[in-house]
Amino acid sequence: MPVSLVLEQLLNGLQFGLMLFLLSAGLTLVLGMMDVVNLAQGSLYMLGAYFAATLAAASGSFWAGLAGAVLATALVALLLEVSVLRRVYGADHLTQVLATFALILVFNEAVRAIWGPQALLLSVPPELARPVTILPGLSYSAYRLTVIGAGVVLAVGMFLFIHRTRVGMWVRAGASNRRMAQAMGVPIRRVFTGVFVTGAALSAVAGALLGPIFAVQVGMGEDVLILAFVAIVIGGIGSVKGSLVGSLLVGVVDTAGRAFLPSVFGLLFAPEVASNLGPTVASVLIYLLMAVVLFVRPQGLFPVHG
Amino acid sequence: MRSRWAVGVVVVLAVSLLASGMAGGQARTLRIGFVSTLSGGGAALGQDVLDAFQLAVRHLGGRLGGLPVEVLTADDQLNPDVARAAVERFLRRDRVDLVTGIIFSNVLLAVGDLVFSSGVFYISPNAGPSEYAGEQCNLHFLNVAWQNDNMHEAMGHYATLKNYETAFILAPNYPAGRDALAGFKRFYKGRVVSEVYTRLGQLDYSAEIAQIRAARPRAVYAFYPGAMGVNFIKQYAEAGLMQQVQLLVPGFSADADVIRAVGKPMVGVFNSSHWALELFNPINRRFVEDFRRSYGRVPTLYAAQGYDTALAIDHGLRAVAGDLGRKADFRKAILSGFDSTRGRVRFSKNGYPIQDYYLRQVVELPNGEIVNRLRGTIFRNHADAYVEKCRLP
Question: DSSP secondary-structure letter at A85?
Fold first, then answer.
């Protein structure tokens, strides 16, 4: 198997994993800090993509669309936190799941009503719509490289913020023990609003950056939300480091499964069996990964709660 | 004031009485259940079929076979369960006379038995699974477009003619995807280096594109309809493969909907089709012109199929004077041929067309417009490979 192929698949997995991380970081903190299962995170990702597509079309610049989408989505998230989520903080998980699942339906129908059922077009910025040669014999899409770069920058920034600043310390304290942190004078409510809005903004970045790779359409949030949940469960709920590792694992395993499993099965089974079995097993591979991780470490790889 | 009200009421009553009296004397309405993919990545396809179907009904004076038409629509969301519920509603509650509209074969295969067992015709504008062409062929099933394998057989034959020694072939993992690659391989004499099936609805093809780059085939054959095709071709171009490996696609992945979304990188791509924008016959010219005028976009082959579906129903109903109870006669009338956007189309006994398949190429006109141009004929009077197994007379 050529090295360049393995390398390219690793880059693909890295790119997908980093984008998944932008979504799962907000999810894991909200779940870890406030014990809220926020299914609507996927809707914020979808909104980010729709705002980006609309604003990019209006302004003619992908980057203006991206910036506008982040601001607009953050604003929607702020309104959402104040109007709906605050009311379900103390409630049991079933109530929260019902409330945020209702939000998914509301957002999906609202988007359908505003933008219509057909997918929107968000194109790669023209200066990046070309391949770059990284190594001899390995060229890679410039846009995907940019996405990887943006993901790395945001992940490092978030790590520094959480581990090197006072607010970051509050966030960590809130995630590991909310009551104790509150008793020590951490303004949990405000920190939480900030975390929620930041998480939404990161989801919007993911939505806008993935828009040209996937498609901007109703329901795009649900597909990726499930993967984000798998990532945070693998990583350990409440841990940003865990969600990073979990997301990268999901990204790489999913890509590698799709790329290599069919040929592995091709060696073991008859072609007809392999062509049916390969794609099927590849699609459940990340769930197998989750099952194995949970079996070995039920709290995830980086547990936060003692 | 009061008297004016009274006069108003009397007029309304009189008009409604008159209207109902007229309706009583009139022929009954033909109810058509149109279930199709109208949201998500396949939405453009369903919308094209629906818009063109309704255009044809308008062209025929709001009637098919002399009966006034009522079209009930439902979105299947590319989900077989949703489609089943919609079709059940059409059959039990709305008591439709005909069902049509489905784009994707997995959806059709989930609802076919339901429709057939109710004694209702399903006239397919698109999905043409091999299952319904062979042993499971059915009196109540007709496809006015093609059998799933056909377009891909044409491209397989073309790849053989062009002497591409090796090919990397891909399709989504669903019945029509498997039919597609079976069709391509039936007529491709070179060596298939890899045969890849992806999840239906997958939008990121980076992993597959890396495999193509590593395999270094002479040609790539990819069957990806709708948004899947848009993404595959865009990513194929962004990865720089357009200049390195010849990309071959069926007409589905190179029609106006994909061209609109992908743009310039598509120029030069060869593709197969049973229909083309510039086919020279009066029906096609009227269809293309009026579709553009009514909907403000270039019609696709899906639109042509939607238009033809209405024409076929009209043709069949005329032969039985609007009486769908005469099933065998209705079927026979359509099978013996009707005039479509592709000229006269005849059918095999399994209800699938026998027709020509063309080669098209995406080109850029001097004015910058990108269109799919007719380049030649690949097959003449081509039928499907399964008809022998069909036991219908």
Answer: G
Q: Are B195 and B221 in contact (CB under 8 A)?
A: no
Query: What residues 61-100 of chain A have any CB closer than 8 A to a CB of chain B?
Result: none
pLDDT (mean) for B103-118: 96
Which residues constitute the domain of residue A191? 8-218
Is residue A265 situated within a structural domain?
Answer: no
Nearest C-alpha neighbor of B153 from the set B55, B75, B247, B221: B221
CA distances to A41, B149, B157, B189, B358 from B378, rounded to whole Å, are 50, 14, 8, 15, 5
Hey, is the C-beta of A16 within 8 angstroms of any chain B C-beta?
Answer: yes
Residue A262 CB coordination number (10 Å): 23
| Alpha helices (H) along A61-141 | 62-83, 93-115
Whether residue A2 lies inside any domain: the answer is no
A194–chain B Cβ distance below 8 A for any pair: no
Rounded-to-integer distance, Cα B157 and Cα B163, Å:
10
| Cβ–Cβ below 8 Å for B261 and A219 | no
pLDDT tens column, A19-56 = 999 999 888 888 877 788 889 999 999 999 999 999 99
- For residue B104 the two structure tokens come to 């994707």
pLDDT at B11: 52
Backbone φ, ψ for residue B243 (5° rounding): -85, -15
- The structure's pTM equals 0.85
> What total of structural domains would you count in chain A?
1
Fold of B150-273+358-382: Rossmann fold (3.40.50)
Of A1, A121, A259, the CB nearest to B207: A259
pLDDT band at B140 (very low <50, low <70, confident <90, very high): very high
**pLDDT band at residue B262 using 50, 70 and 90 as cut-offs:** confident
Residue B105 confidence (pLDDT) above 70? yes
Q: Say whether B207 and A129 touch across the interface (CB within 8 A).
A: no
Where is average pLDDT lowest: A126-140, A186-200, B273-287, B309-323? A126-140
At A272, the pLDDT band (50, 70, 90 cuts) reads: low
Give A249-253 contacts, CB < 8 A, sequence gap 24+: A249/A17, A249/A289, A250/A17, A250/A20, A250/A286, A250/A289, A251/A13, A251/A14, A251/A15, A251/A16, A251/A17, A251/A18, A251/A19, A251/A20, A252/A10, A252/A13, A252/A14, A252/A17, A253/A13, A253/A285, A253/A286, A253/A289
Assigned CATH for B30-146+279-347 = 3.40.50.2300
Q: What is the least distance, in Å, from the CA of A87 to any CA of chain B?
A: 33
Specify the pLDDT at position B21: 41
Contact B40 A218 (CB under 8 A): yes
pLDDT of B350 higher than 90: yes
Question: Distance (Å) from the C-alpha of residue B192 to the closest C-alpha of chain A?
Answer: 12
Which positions in chain A touch B47 (Cβ < 8 Å)? 118
- Chain A residues with beta carbon closer than 8 angstroms to that of B79: none
DSSP B357-373: EEEEEEEE-TTS-EEEE
Report residue A135's pLDDT band, with 50, 70 and 90 as the boundaries.
confident
Region of residue A35 (left: phi > 0; alpha: psi -120 to 50; beta: else): left
d(C-alpha A44, C-alpha A35), whole Å: 19
- Residue A248 CA to residue A245 CA, distance in Å, equals 5
Q: Is B306 in contact with B50 (CB distance < 8 Å)?
A: yes
Contact B79, B110 (CB under 8 A): no
Q: How many Å apart are CA B46 and CA B77, to the nearest integer?
A: 10
Residue A133 CA, chain-centre distance (Å), reads 28
The verdict on B264 touching A (C-beta cutoff 8 Å) is: no
Directed axis angle between helix B301-319 and helix B43-59, to 10°?
A: 40
Residue B17: what pLDDT? Answer: 46
Q: How do the domains of chain B map onto residue ranges?
A: 30-146+279-347, 150-273+358-382
